Predict the structure.
Amino acid sequence: MAQVTEAIYAHGVLTPRDELELRESQRVRLIVEPIDDDTDREDRTTALRRPPEGIERMNFFSSELLPSRDGLHDRR
């Protein structure tokens, strides 16, 4: 039976947050996924910086004449 819980890693030891239903000396498979990884926070900061930098490089000007107000209302 699979069990999911959080654990704290300190001084080389993983300590589960909740009690696990395991018999003594039972072998288990661990998949470790950091919850509060500092690297992930840096990636978010970098990702948040990207849109404004991209917008600065965009060209928002048209080489064609812009439609008049009446012309915009005629579009349906």
Observations:
- The two ends are 60 Å apart (CA to CA).
